[in-house]
Structure formats: structure tokens, C-alpha cells
């Protein structure tokens, strides 16, 4: 159904698998069904239109040279912002800031706080490495306090996080829409954000939720910063990320670049001013081929009527078949006892995570699956198996468990 959009990547994977079959560790019988890429949550395949998009970027640069900025800032960026706003039901596309990665955007937000004053941060123990590492470094400052709420048990996470949020007088709260180390969606996170204290800035890390789970931010658009990017489920590769900025935001990031005054380059003053749109959080020069790729995918899917809701339904159907195969197989590691889950029907992103007991067990299982033509990834003792719309609609996943 959706495989037609990913022919280039699927054919390249098939070719690579055929070349690998000469290796002693490759199970030819198992892999005869073709490779199964289940690291979609890590490096999602790119639709074929992204190749044309990169070539178009090169052609535009050759045709326009310095004048390409007029096209990028006047046409391409606004078109991308409108697409993001449409998919997240955001009311103000001009409030969507862009950067090569979300870490740059989040750090720019952090730089708006006065680090000579006490700074209190609320988060969870399940955040991605970039933010977790940044907080650890900030904690070395004597005036910075970080409170981490344990994600498990997931049944009580929402209650525990909101209780802390409402009682702690935090400057910033940060939580993931879908946790990178489990695939579990934060229960009730958007509702919690809607009730947050006015004085607390809040960031939702949507990287593993965007373009996977239907997300409506209309009720909290002016309350939270929402970050995500094109590397995961949009399938447009690395280098294109965004952050929605609440309207009326008056924060003055210390980390700022020349794009932040793009509209005033001809009339610069001695004072550092900030715009009232996305440019408040703008940085500096970046490679906009990633913008072209992301926009090409977004416009293609809009033209063909492919919504995030339809993508999610397709993936959920595959996940149900996976669970059925898993339950029937009684695999020593890939089973319900080792699966980290909360609500398998409605409470997950597009990957499952299994505890393997040790990093060595996870690595061994990963290699066993690879010998069957199944590519997945792991994080220490956790093995992650992801799902995507380029998987066949009749894939039964039984080969994982044999």
C-alpha cells in the first residue's frame, strides 16, 4: 500500500541483503522473505521524492546563488511551517522555529534563563540523551536544581508529574510525548500541559510522536514549546527540526544568531532586538537541503491524502499482528514479561522495547535477528523493534520468533 513511496530505499536494502548472503552468519532460508527494517524509530526510510528534492535544492542554488535566501525564507520556510501547523493543528505557522537539530532549539530556550539566578527544572528519568546530558552539565552549577520523576510505573506517571509541576515552582518543565527508551506515550501529557502554572515554561519533546501519533496542539499552542524533526517518522532524514513557540513569548535567548535579525539586516541597531515570530529562536546558517526533503514528503502525503491518523492505524494493525505472533511463540526474550508497555492498544508510539537482562543478551539477540534479515537497534540491555508504513500489510512477523 505505502511501499510504492519508498522503492529506492527498499530496493537498496534488498540489494545489500543479497550481497550479505554470502556471509557465514547469514541465515539464507530465514532471509529469503527479504530484509525487514525494524529500526524505523532510529533511521526511518526516506520516500523517493527526497532524492528529487535534494537535486532541486542544488539546482536552485546554482540558479540563484546568494538570491536563494529569498526563495528559502520567502517561500520554502513558510510552506514548511504551514505543513507543520496543519499536521499539529497549530494556529500560527509563523511561530514555528527551525534548526538542524532539536538540541540547538532547546539549548537556545535554556539560554533565555538567567543562569546567575536559581533555576529549577522538572523532567523525567526517560528523556533522550541530549537533554539528559545537558541537564547533568547544568547541575554542576550550584544554583541549578533538577527534579526527575520516574516514568515507571506508567499508571501513576501523570499524577506524579502533575503533582510536582503544580507544587514545585519550576522555571521549566520538560517531558517526552513518547519515551525513546520504551515507546510508551506519556499518559495525559497534553492535558497536564494545559493546566501547567503560568510562570512555568514547558517543553514537549515530540520527536517519537510527531508524524506517528495524531497530535492536536490547538488547546496548548500558546502554553508550550513543542519540538520534533524529520529524522524519525516523517522520513526526510537528519538536519531539519522545529520548535513551536507560544504567541506573545518575550524570552530573550542568550544563544542567538544572525538569522534572528534577518528582517532587520539593513537597519541594524546597537541593541539586540528580537522578533515576535519564530525568528526570536533562530540561529545561523544551515544546510537547507533537509528543508527541501521534509517539505517534499509533507506535500506528497497531503496531495495523496495520507494523514497521520491513517499512518497510525496502519502501524497499529502491524503491531497487533506482531503481538499475536509473539504471544504464540513463547520466545525466551521477546515476550510479554520483557515487553515494556502501558496500554498496547492506545498508549504506544511506533516501536516496542524489550528488556533483555543484560547488554550482552541484547547484543546477541540483535545479531540473531540480523542473521534472519531483521534490522533493529538496542540501548544497553534494551532491544527496540519499530514499525513503519513501508512494512507490508500482510507481514506476520513470525520470523522474529523462530
How would you portray this structure in words?
The chain has 11 helices and 13 strands. The chain has helices spanning 7-20, 28-31, 49-64, 68-88, 102-110, 129-138, 157-167, 189-194, 289-303, 308-329, 359-371, and strands at residues 36-37, 96-99, 119-124, 144-149, 172-176, 201-205, 225-229, 241-244, 339-340, 351-355, 374-375, 377-379, 382-386. The protein has a 7-stranded mixed β-sheet with strand order 2-8-7-6-5-3-4, with helices on both faces. Strands 9-10-13-12 form a 4-stranded antiparallel β-sheet. The longest helix has 22 residues, at 308-329. The protein starts with 6 loop residues before the first helix and ends in a 16-residue tail after the last strand.
In a nutshell, what does this entry contain?
The chain has 402 residues and is α/β, with parallel strands linked by helices. The chain is 35% helix and 13% strand. It is built from eleven helices and 13 strands.
From the structure above, extract its key features.
402 residues, alpha/beta, 7-stranded mixed β-sheet, 4-stranded antiparallel β-sheet, 11 helices, 13 strands, globular
How would you characterize the largest beta sheet? Answer: 7 strands, mixed
Mean pLDDT: 94
Strand order of the largest sheet: 2-8-7-6-5-3-4
Shape by Cα distribution: globular
Count of alpha/pi helices: 11
Category from helices, strands and their pairing:
alpha/beta
Order of helices and strands: HHEHHEHEHEHEHEEEHHEEHEEE
CA-CA gap between termini: 27 Å
How many runs of DSSP E, i.e. beta strands?
13
* Rg of Cα set: 22 Å
Percent helix, as a range, is 25-40%
Low confidence ranges: none
Strand content: 5-15%
Amino acid at each position: 500500500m505505502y511501499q510504492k513511496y519508498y522503492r529506492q530505499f527498499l530496493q537498496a536494502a534488498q540489494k545489500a541483503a543479497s550481497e550479505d548472503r554470502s556471509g557465514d552468519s547469514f541465515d539464507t532460508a530465514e532471509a529469503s522473505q527479504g530484509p525487514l527494517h525494524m529500526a524505523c524509530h532510529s533511521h526511518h526510510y526516506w520516500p523517493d521524492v527526497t532524492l528529487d528534492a535534494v537535486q532541486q535544492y542544488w539546482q536552485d542554488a546554482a540558479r540563484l546563488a546568494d538570491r536563494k535566501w529569498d526563495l528559502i525564507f520567502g517561500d520554502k520556510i513558510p510552506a514548511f511551517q504551514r505543513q507543520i501547523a496543519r499536521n499539529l493543528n497549530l494556529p500560527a505557522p509563523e511561530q514555528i522555529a527551525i534548526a538542524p537539530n532539536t538540541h540547538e532549539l532547546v539549548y537556545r530556550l535554556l539560554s533565555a534563563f538567567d543562569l546567575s539566578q536559581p533555576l529549577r527544572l522538572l523532567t523525567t528519568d526517560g528523556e533522550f540523551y541530549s537533554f539528559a546530558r545537558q541537564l547533568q552539565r547544568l547541575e554542576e552549577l550550584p544554583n541549578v536544581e533538577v527534579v526527575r520523576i520516574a516514568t515507571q510505573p506508567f499508571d501513576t506517571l501523570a499524577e506524579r508529574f502533575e503533582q510536582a509541576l503544580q507544587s514545585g515552582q519550576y522555571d521549566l518543565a520538560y517531558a517526552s510525548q513518547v519515551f525513546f527508551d520504551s515507546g510508551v506515550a506519556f499518559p495525559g501529557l497534553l492535558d497536564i500541559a494545559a493546566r501547567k502554572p503560568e510562570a512555568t515554561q514547558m517543553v514537549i519533546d515530540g520527536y517519537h510522536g510527531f508524524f506517528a501519533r495524531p497530535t492536536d496542539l490547538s488547546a496548548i499552542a500558546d502554553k508550550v514549546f513543542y519540538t520534533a524533526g524529520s529524522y524519525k517518522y516523517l522520513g526526510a532524514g537528519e538536519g531539519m527540526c522545529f520548535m513551536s513557540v507560544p504567541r506573545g513569548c518575550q524570552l530573550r535567548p542568550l544563544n542567538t544568531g544572525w538569522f534572528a535579525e534577518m528582517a532587520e539586516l539593513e537597519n541594524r541597531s546597537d541593541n539586540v532586538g528580537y522578533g515576535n515570530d519564530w525568528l526570536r529562536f533562530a540561529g545561523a546558517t544551515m544546510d537547507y537541503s533537509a528543508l527541501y526533503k521534509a517539505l517534499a514528503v509533507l506535500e506528497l502525503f497531503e496531495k495523496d491524502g495520507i494523514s497521520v491518523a491513517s499512518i497510525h492505524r496502519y502501524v497499529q494493525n502491524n503491531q497487533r499482528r506482531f503481538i499475536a505472533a509473539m504471544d504464540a511463540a513463547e520466545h525466551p526474550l521477546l515476550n510479554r514479561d520483557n515487553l515494556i508497555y502501558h496500554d498496547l492498544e492506545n498508549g504506544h508510539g511506533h516501536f516496542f522495547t524489550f528488556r533483555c537482562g543484560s547488554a550482552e543478551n541484547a547484543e546477541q539477540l540483535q545479531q540473531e535477528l540480523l542473521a534472519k534479515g531483521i534490522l533493529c537497534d538496542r540501548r544497553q540491555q534494551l532491544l527496540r523493534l519499530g514499525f513503519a508504513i513501508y512494512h507490508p500489510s500482510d507481514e506476520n512477523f513470525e520470523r522474529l520468533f523462530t
